[in-house]
Amino acid sequence: MTKQNTAAWIEKDRKQLHPTYHPKSHANPLVIERGEGVWLYTTDGQKILDGMAGLWNVNVGYGHEELAKAAYDQMRELAFTSNFSGMTNLPSIALADKLAGFAYEGLNTTLFTSGGSEANDSAFKTARYYWKRRGRPGKYKIIARKGAYHGITLAATFATGLEKYHSMFGPAMDGFVHIPAPNPYRYEGQVKAGETIGQAAARELEEAILREGQNSVAAFIAEPVMGVGGVIVPPADYFPLVRAICDQYGILFIADEVITGFGRTGEWFALNHWNVKPDMLAFAKAITSGYAPLGGIQLSDQIRETMESAPESEAYMHGYTYSGHAMACAVGLKNLEIMERDHYPKRARELGKRLLDGLKTLSEFPFVGDVRGLGLVCGVEIVSNKETKAADPARTMQIFKAAQELGLRSRPLGNTLAFSPPLSITADEVDEIIKRLGAAMDRAA
Q1: What residue ranges define each of the domains in the chain, with the CATH number in brackets?
Q2: Is the pLDDT at 206 greater than 80, yes or no?
Q3: Angle ∠(332,223,381) on CA atoms, nearest 5
Q4: Among 18, 273, 320, 378, whose CB has the most other CB atoms within 10 angstroms?
């Protein structure tokens, strides 16, 4: 390919509307032709180390022939059939069986979706359904966190705690309440004397339940590590306190592990870092390493039993055309086999430490305010003043663009640069991330 060819492709691309689109930000997109391992190759000859694993999801890396073969074999046999009540298929049966209890003990039932937004939307509907079946229809509200990202269906949009995602799509849906996130670097709430930030953030949940009325709150949803909100790793005491509060007030706890699931943080699922178990789990992205669109929710046995006891007039009337898509589920099964065989959570722990340690060496730059991460998901927060912690999104974008020119892809999230490379990355490639980001910071300085 040549630059002339690339220009022609970009002109044709104008007929496509891209997610989170603005013509200014999409004026000169990278046109990706192929991928191999952690590397992306553009039509105009650039070779880019993908420090974001696509969109947090290509865990086994690009060009994995076993996944391509699994998709091909299944499509030849049966690409798709309806999975609505009264029909099923072998790959969806096998994957649901594999996932039963895989993430958390007691979560043995799976509803498949096409992605994470659908998964969280399904979780909200399921929470409402559950409480109606339990004779408490007034419990419909969802408590989320400021800075949270839960997707872009209409309900997931307003569960998301980032104003830019819903300011143009209002009025806001009723029933979504937001509280401060447990951000150790810049906590937005009030910390009382003797409290840790984890205790203060958990108290905000309890106060929101009491303020809204526990008989109106259906569920609390949280990402174990906040992704789009700036790669926020919570204090160690936060989630055990959250679980206790949800139990005390009869609130379902939904874990949004769309980003953190399937090995990304060094555990198969991230709440295991704190020995906490949710009532519902939303997953997507790395279930297929991005090779096929697939997501889902897992339900506690108690929620499943409530469904099972329903009369026909109160059936669970929810699902999608592509729920349990045969080819996608076959790819998911093979992807899990690869990640188990090649010990991907262990790789994420070991190489994640190497990445985090390397990123911390860049703290010598006067504009690096904080470096944080868990496993192979890390963030570097850029500030104009380390003492005041004043955010500097302009310099963040400058560093992002310089790094991309140097062949490193990250993701600018406000004033934080996010990194979540494929779990297949090597130690040398981790070091290459540090080297290229350091060079980009030198340019920005």
Answers
A1: 3-60+344-444 (3.90.1150.10), 67-341 (3.40.640.10)
A2: yes
A3: 110
A4: 378
